[in-house]
Model the fold of this input.
Amino acid sequence: MPVDHYENFPVASILLPKRLVPAVEAIYAFARTADDIADEGDASGPERLAALSAYEAALDAIGRGEHQRDTLFRRLAEVIAQYKLPLQPFYDLLSAFKQDVDTKRYPNFDLLLDYCRRSANPVGLLMLSLYGAVDDANVRDSDAICSALQLINFLQDVGIDRQKDRIYIPMDDLQRFGVAPAELDKQNTGGNWRALMAFEVARARALMQSGAPLARRLPGRIGWELRLVIQGGLRILEEIEKAGYDVFNQRPQLKTLDWMAILWRALRM
Done:
């Protein structure tokens, strides 16, 4: 499976049990293709929304137990039935992808976090469901980890998102730190920008650390998977800081030494 740009999905991880690979691939295929409908190609906004609505209709049919002719949805229906997966996370993902079509700004952090709740958190819930590890505490911490990962991705991709006319930093934060949206086009990394990014990095780090106990509670491979995910996200935040918050010209990329540090920190957890 290609894993180039669905940031929060642990597809092809060496820690993923072989028995779960077909299930994760089916879920990933659904999320990847739906996300591409929202983001890729030259389709108009209404065409994208119509295609995503067709995905919702397919989920409705799966919920009614109807046979699926399309291979993608037939595989998904089999996985949902086998693992008794809830349908709501899939609907939530589609809701977020639809929002990407016509929402380019977020007035405040609460609204951005609501987007994360639907664009990232469903992945964690589905993984917990596959492992049979769903309870209130686990879901709470999983939500924190997934939302933090989404926020970290936003921070490292400010320049890329701006090219798509999207800004995922809350508008009231920009205003509070005196950073005009136009400065993102100029790639101005002056004092106001650094202060803004320091605040955003600290908030994402705190959210990630709040969910970290989940990795110590869950046994076996999923626990190790989470340790690496958490430490990888935290390492990217460190790289943003080391670059002086210049994510326009120094987008963080994890190299061999970074992965060695991530593994060491995961072991220490």
Q: What stands out?
A: Residues 1-12 have pLDDT under 50 and may be disordered. The radius of gyration is 19 Å.
